[in-house]
Amino acid sequence: MDVRSLVEELKETIDAERVSQNDTILEQHSKDESYHTPNLPDVVVFPKTAEEVSKIMKLAQKYKCPVIPFGIGSSLEGHVIPVKGGISLDFTLMNEIIDIREKDLLVVVQPGVTRTQLNEALKGYGLFFPVDPGADATLGGMAATGASGTTTVKYGTMRNQVQDLEVVLADGTIIHTGNMAAKSSSGYNLTSLFIGSEGTLGCFTELTLKVHGLPEYVMAARAVFQTVDDAVNAVVDVRQAGIPVARAELVDEQTMHVVNEHSQTDFPVKPTLLFEFHGNQSGLMEDVRLTKQILDDHNCRDFIYETDHAKRNQLWKVRHNMAYAFIHTYRGRKLMATDVCVPISELAGAIYHARKALFKSGIPGGIAGHVGDGNFHVTLMIDTNNAEEIARTKQLNKELVEYAISRRGTCTGEHGVGLGKKQFQRLEHGAAFDYMKKIKDVLDPNRILNPGKIF
Amino acid sequence: MDVRSLVEELKETIDAERVSQNDTILEQHSKDESYHTPNLPDVVVFPKTAEEVSKIMKLAQKYKCPVIPFGIGSSLEGHVIPVKGGISLDFTLMNEIIDIREKDLLVVVQPGVTRTQLNEALKGYGLFFPVDPGADATLGGMAATGASGTTTVKYGTMRNQVQDLEVVLADGTIIHTGNMAAKSSSGYNLTSLFIGSEGTLGCFTELTLKVHGLPEYVMAARAVFQTVDDAVNAVVDVRQAGIPVARAELVDEQTMHVVNEHSQTDFPVKPTLLFEFHGNQSGLMEDVRLTKQILDDHNCRDFIYETDHAKRNQLWKVRHNMAYAFIHTYRGRKLMATDVCVPISELAGAIYHARKALFKSGIPGGIAGHVGDGNFHVTLMIDTNNAEEIARTKQLNKELVEYAISRRGTCTGEHGVGLGKKQFQRLEHGAAFDYMKKIKDVLDPNRILNPGKIF
Fold it and tell me: Mind telling me which InterPro entries this protein's record contains (chains A, B) (predicted)?
């Protein structure tokens, strides 16, 4: 690839200032928040419009040059690492909230808008956007990963929130995948195909997202258990009873300890469930009463309500900062998080199996997760200079994934495939994987879109 | 195509008794419930397993013979009409409920199971399957159409309910598109691609579906208005207030009149909204109170609760029998239903426009719809022997569709494309339509799967 000519042509096509080969900028775009090995892109470009992205794509085709869309680099599976160099397409300058359609409960945003930026803008309208992965990711990145988070048990994942995408395809064509109607049976559902495609099918240049009315009443609760088994079985029964919890998170005692140290909190160092309920006050009180009853049946010792806004926020801040608490506590080590998701009936068995495997591995870590969805993470703090420890970590992840897939679960509930889950795609999807490849080949015949990811 | 050899080979491949060229059976498989012109298949085959479907598909490839999956023929857009002859693949014998996974709120069914059959089986578990198009369609057909119905405003469409599909592809390969975990970010979302693909990408041989706990408490309400405008604006405000209604249906005065005549009921012949609320009793009471307040602001004269189970059922039976009421009243004419869906902010304008167009056309009919989703149907009773009237009906539909698409809506909210909406695909999807075609071509290069539909 003649990088020099490519860069010259890029500079002629859009502002030269927005085409960078500065060392610091290249280095910033070589990595994400994962343990995967960084690799430099050849050039970083900062487009401002879909038309510019289209022009860049056509140049990339001409040079058969990889294109890697980049949000803020908060991926946990190496999605944005330019493993074969090429153009890192940074969407920082496309961060405008274009339209807030209150009546339709829809917003139109550019891909570089972050979820907290959007929620800040929505506040005044009494609306909010529910999907909350830990990081303050960009909405384009979240859609590309098929992200989810703590509120998914009630509001769903990005798949449920994206109404329409404007996508620049590998050949530079700009398409819309959907419309603004609440439902449609017209043509193939391209929106869902692109969500979770991790930049391998096209680059998103505009997203229409569903938003929700702020709930009339919110209550959080903390439930402390003697054993992880009790906590997991309790949450399974709460789901089974059809109680519409808005959040249902497990934090094990190891994680609680790290969190307390880092956040100067004094939560009991016991397996804990964190709940949140959204609704009208009287309906919610009945839900909470029923939940408490179920938890009692599973030896819950403490069930503490947090109606106060500040206390509730503290609770969820702790949950969201959990990864940082681990990183802070184990300086010099890198975080690796497993991400399996299993049918809820298999959750207790899967977590039991994971805990045994974690303790046996001797690697420092803990278990936490969105147990209301059957999704949990084993956080592992690894010394990336220690080849034997890396091998042990990978073996542990492999065991967890194989266990989950054998129970009709998935290797990744929310972090995506990226580099880390490629090896499990055939096992998980079987013959379907070949047809994913065929679709990839027909939409990106020269394989310029985020090569080396998923496949 | 050498039909005789094909039929011989089919008979050798599966029981000869399940390969039929009987005139009555061919005729039954030539049509659906729509106004579209019937056409005979060459042969009807009744498979019992995915493996048999795979063998049939391989034979179809050999003979380049069309394959048209057939449920119970309740389509409203000609989906199952073998416009180019071929094999009508009837799933009547694949009607087993394979597994009810209570804890996971999932069921595994064969494609020929109908929605009432499933709900009958679920009753004993305190569970139900929410999607309810008017007809007692098969679940395979509903998934293929991307069907929805009156409860979609709360529970979503088939797209939200299908967890996994077993699909026999055009080359005979059997794949699974998903798993049983509540969420996954692993690989491309093929499940959503196949839902609504109308038999053009593969044949479903097994479905894993989400089911829901029967609500603790259910209340229905009937709200009578002086004008359609008031009724529509009221429902828009109810949605905007975030009240989680389970059903929100509009029936206009023309439709109410036909319904009363047919069902021997005496509902007021006025624009009416039918609501249903699901939840715990105290939460629901608060929702109903707030709804009534909003409706009052829109000059609602009568707001009648129906808590009684029998009365509630009567109300929804009336709603579901509406099409039959029209067919019964206008004997000799055929029903044609438009199916646009618009963003909720555009609903009042769209219905106002549709009513004007309906009255101007002079064709007997009425308006009803799932207005909570912005989806409504103009029911038109047409004399299919009158070419001028058919032309007038098609023109009316075209005007409605163009209006909807110009407001970022869709030509079909739930009936699918089939034969009737093909002409609007380019207008609605723009350049994206070319890429749908590319995906079709790569999965079905010889175009044997339900040819003549969508494209």
Answer: FAD-bd_oxidored_4_C, FAD-bd_PCMH, FAD-bd_PCMH-like_sf, FAD-bd_PCMH_sub2, FAD-linked_Oxase-like_C, Oxid_FAD_bind_N, Vanillyl_alc_oxidase_C-sub2
Compute the CA torsion angle A284, A285, A291, A295 (nearest 10 deg).
140
CATH code for the domain defined by A3-90: 3.30.43.10
pLDDT of the residue at B119: 98
**In this complex, do B443 and A435 lie within 8 Å of one another by their Cβ atoms?**
yes
CB of A403 within 8 Å of any CB in chain B?
Answer: no
Chain B: residue whose CA lies nearest to A166:
B432
Per residue in B299-339, pLDDT (tens digit) is 998 999 887 888 888 888 888 888 889 999 999 999 999 99
Indicate the CATH number for domain B217-323. Answer: 3.30.70.2190
Place of tokens 């709120």: B105
DSSP reduced 3-state for B301: coil
- Closest-CA residue of A relative to B406 is A179
Q: How many CA atoms lie within 13 A of A93 on its CB side?
A: 15
Do strands B375-382 and B272-279 pair parallel, antiparallel, or not at all (unpaired)? unpaired
Same CATH topology for A217-323 and A330-415: the answer is yes
Domain boundaries, given as residue ranges, for chain A: 3-90, 97-213, 217-323, 330-415
Q: Could you give the count of Cα atoms lying within 13 Å of B189 in the half-sphere of its Cβ?
A: 31
Is residue A87 within 8 A of residue A45, CB to CB? The reply is yes
> What is this model's ipTM?
0.96
Contact predicate A167/A177, CB 8 Å? yes
Interatomic CA distance for residues B178 and B164, integer angstroms: 4
**Mean residue pLDDT across chain B:** 95
A-facing residues of B in 337-376 (CB < 8 A) are: 339, 341-345, 373-375
